């Protein structure tokens, strides 16, 4: 393969990315697809092969799982296998010192950060199996997990990445969220507030970053077949099609392909401040999910 073909096949060869919360689920799907596009990906989170995160006891019990699936090491290895360069860095994104150390390391080793994907999310830590209930029946612990260990994580990482991008007048911050055209995400007021805050965070950051040539967008996937979703339906990625209830789902790598497309778009500044749905981006950029479908946008 010559250099021209290699560049075409790996459009993110020169991209240095940080993906937070990438042990599993959306973060893993994003990191893997960035790797497939040739990026160097710093894969961050708390779960390592030797020491899985220990704050998911309630969700594990509900899912009949003995241990939390995935690790930053597994994801980093998959990034490299797909053609990129995966670098696992254990980081508790609620800890400001650890986050600062992460970005100091990236700057020291790579010299820059081209892409930050804010995905670290603590909301699952307090999930009690109740999907729909009035706000007075949801535990107040959901506020702490979704805001202090969710929205705040995104802000802390962005504060560290932004100065590195502003200095070069180039970069992209992607915030993963869930958005259904502004409709109320019925069933959990805490979840609705947290996701709306993430969307607004991406918008607000875009305003401050625009004069410096740095873009910020929020990206909303549909219903993803994460490890926990598959476990909840007593199936796996190889057999999910046997579960009619999962017919509207998409793989986490569908979201990953959306992020990779945005990262490779030289006109991404034109989208800065927007909240973008993966299904819409699939049509615009012409990519599909891993099963060849362009999955329709999930709407409430």
UniProtKB/TrEMBL annotation:
Gene3D superfamilies: NAD(P)-binding Rossmann-like Domain
InterPro entries recorded: NAD(P)-bd_dom_sf, SDR_fam
Protein name in the entry: SDR family oxidoreductase
């Amino acid at each position: 393969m010559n250099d021209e073909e290699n560049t075409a096949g790996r459009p993110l060869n020169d991209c240095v990315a940080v993906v937070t919360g990438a042990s599993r689920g959306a973060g893993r799907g994003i990191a893997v697809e960035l790797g497939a596009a040739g990026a160097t990906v710093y894969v961050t989170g708390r779960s390592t092969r030797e020491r899985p995160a220990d704050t998911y006891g309630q969700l594990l019990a509900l899912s009949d799982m003995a241990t939390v699936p995935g690790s930053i090491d597994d994801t980093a290895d998959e990034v490299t296998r797909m053609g990129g360069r995966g670098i696992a860095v254990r980081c508790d994104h609620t800890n400001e010192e650890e986050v600062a150390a992460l970005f100091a390391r990236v700057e020291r080793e790579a010299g820059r950060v081209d892409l930050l994907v804010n995905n670290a999310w603590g909301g699952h830590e307090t999930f009690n199996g109740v999907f729909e209930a009035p706000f007075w029946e949801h535990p107040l612990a959901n506020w702490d997990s979704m805001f202090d260990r969710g929205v705040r994580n995104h802000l802390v990482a962005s504060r560290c990445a932004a100065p590195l991008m502003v200095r070069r007048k180039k970069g992209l911050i992607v915030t993963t969220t869930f958005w259904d055209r502004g409709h109320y995400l019925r069933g959990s007021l805490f979840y609705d507030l947290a996701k709306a805050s993430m969307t607004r965070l991406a918008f607000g950051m875009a305003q401050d970053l625009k004069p410096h040539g740095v873009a910020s967008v929020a990206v909303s996937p549909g219903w993803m077949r994460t490890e926990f979703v598959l476990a909840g339906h007593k199936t796996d990625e190889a057999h999910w099609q046997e579960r009619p209830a999962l017919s509207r789902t998409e793989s986490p790598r569908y979201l990953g392909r959306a992020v990779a497309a945005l990262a490779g778009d030289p006109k991404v500044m034109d989208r800065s401040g927007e909240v973008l749905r993966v299904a819409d981006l699939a049509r615009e950029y012409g990519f599909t999910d891993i099963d060849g479908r362009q999955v329709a946008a999930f709407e409430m």
